[in-house]
Amino acid sequence: MFVFSKKSILTILLLSYSILNAQAQTPKTDTTLAEIAPIEIKAHFNSQAMLDMTSSARVVSKKLLQAQSTSTILSAMNSTPGIRMEERSPGSYRLALRGSMIRSPFGVRNTKIYLDEIPFTDASGNTYLNIIDPVGIDNIQIIKGPDGSLYGPNTGGVVRIMPNGLTTQKNNDVSLLLAGGSYGMFQEQLNIEQQVNKKYNFSFSQAFLRSDGYRDQSGLNKKFFQTAHQWAYSPKGELKFLALYADLGYETPGGLTEAQYLENPRQARPAGGPFPSAADQKAAIYNKTSIAGITHSYQFNAQLKHVIALFGSYTDFKNPFVTNYETRKEKNFGLRTYLSYEENQSERFQWEMQLGAEGQKGWYAIKNYENNFGDKGALNYDDQLENLQHFYFYRVKAKIAQRLIAEGSIGLNLNNIDFEQKANNANPIKGDKHFKNSWMPRLGLSYLVLPEFAIRASISKGYSTPTISEVRSSNNQINRDLNPEDGVNYEAGLRYETKNRRIIADLAAYQYRMKNGIVRQLDAGGAEYFNNAGEIDQKGIEASVLTQIISPEQGLFVRSLIFSTNLTYQDYSFTKYLVDDKDYTGNQVTSIPKWMWANTLSFELPKQFEINLYHNHCSSIPLNDANSFYAKKYDLLQAKLAWTTAILKQRKVQFFVGADNLLDEKYSLGNDINAMGNRFYNAAPPRNYYAGLKLMM
């Protein structure tokens, strides 16, 4: 599984060395607040100032993505209020945006994710976030709160990953990174961005990552390739192309009971009862995914623009597990298109509108076998599923007297699943699951009280259909009784930015009353299934302050000092939740910590030395619906020291060293929720280190 030949590494290094001898710009090193918190976000079709936003939004910049370990986006994402990202073991990610991880044991739910204009979330609602490598990301744009009117079913929000080469900023950069660290970690990243001429630019990103993992049966091997091309073929027309391929394999050690976790947190799930151990069954996930898309935009005149994107993906997925061996062949194809009209002639009144549609079709062949110690045994299930998900949207926005922003949007979502299920010694079962068509409206206001101070409010409907993995879960049954989550979100907030952008503050408060919340359960055999929990009340407060205490133009010994603090409060409770004869009404929602607090501190010193510190506090987390087990609170501290120096004229090299979990906390980052036998805990590594170098052109 974890083979990467010396010849392959040598080929990459020789190729990289030849590229590094090409001429390019020298990157600047002094950091300003604008690099960490851009003044604009491309949230709804067009770039707009953050002060004009009627929703709570955040941009995770490239600078923030590189502040700690460059092998993962985890710490950068967790510095955003309202987001919790977990890593159960190397390569096994989960992401929750203003939502519970109660229905997302292995990935992303309630959240729609895009790669520029291309949906990364497939027709089934699934997102393979772990195939992405940070080397290919320019920035990540986050819109919090339901936005189904424009982006399809979601209750938590929308994440837009902007790949290198597809942003308005054009670079001529070439870099090669090599790093190693604790537990057999080795990392290599190559990135090329070139502005060939005024009309055409491209990027190529490649990465390799491997690790033995802290726990037994937790090795990782990942290969990643991405290329993006942008061609302005005329003053009015532009073509963009994006393609990526990932070959990801990671072992899954499984959850431990509290006694096992305290006795030996490094062990994989041991054998118990009728179940063999995770190591004996060679439990792992192998994912080979290709994604490609082409986007065409045409500006007919100063007011009217048309955008269309065609995209598709293919996934070859294998999952030997303790109880079975599952394979999946997944194909997706889709289209997103819209017309945009803008009228900006008057300073007193400006308006715009968009009308569009998005649709995806997915084909999924899922087979379940006996797992004979990592090999496929007898075939038990052979299922074919098709999913068609499409929605239509309209939005209008007005800016009045350069102070008041008012926008309204509405979307109509349609979703259905067809299936044919075959089991051993049984006649095939054919059927379908049609979800009720849903209207998804949103209204938002923002008012600029002062040139640097804005208040906002919005009301929107959240709507999230079950994914294929929830309708047809690992118990191999088609659950036709599972219904979409929905509810109404009420939100208010404010944003403050000083004129020189030395201080940026944002505050948001919301209440989302979810009906038919989807929760994960396990049957007596350890297979998962999902049901609707009734009603969940989600109340939250998110606050952040970002300040540049010292800026480069002050000429002090510390050239730059930037501090941010980000606080999340989540009061999530079951307001109506019955499972069989158990009543969990009033309990805290499983998997949700009430408090999360993230702080970052960045120093830039003479001679191009840079120090980045990161602190994350997480309060205790309920691990089951009964709230009888909790994961303990923890404080995570990370640090990275980097030194950049010039070599060979315009070339530069950066040496860096970093440490994770400096406080040596014993904690579980990514718990198994409602786990059979109370196997909740997936131990995170104790204090660990990494070091490397980055050549830059």
Automatic annotation (TrEMBL):
It holds the Pfam family TonB_dep_Rec_b-barrel. It is a multi-pass membrane protein. Residues 52-158 form the TonB-dependent receptor plug domain. Keywords: Cell outer membrane, Membrane, Receptor, Signal, TonB box, Transmembrane, Transmembrane beta strand, Transport. GO terms for biological process: siderophore transmembrane transport. Residues 255-662 form the TonB-dependent receptor-like beta-barrel domain. The keyword Transmembrane applies. Residues 1-24 form the signal peptide. The keyword Nucleotide-binding does not apply. GO terms for molecular function: siderophore uptake transmembrane transporter activity. GO terms for cellular component: cell outer membrane. It comes from the Bacteria. It is found in: Cell outer membrane. Belongs to the TonB-dependent receptor family. This is TonB-dependent receptor plug domain-containing protein.
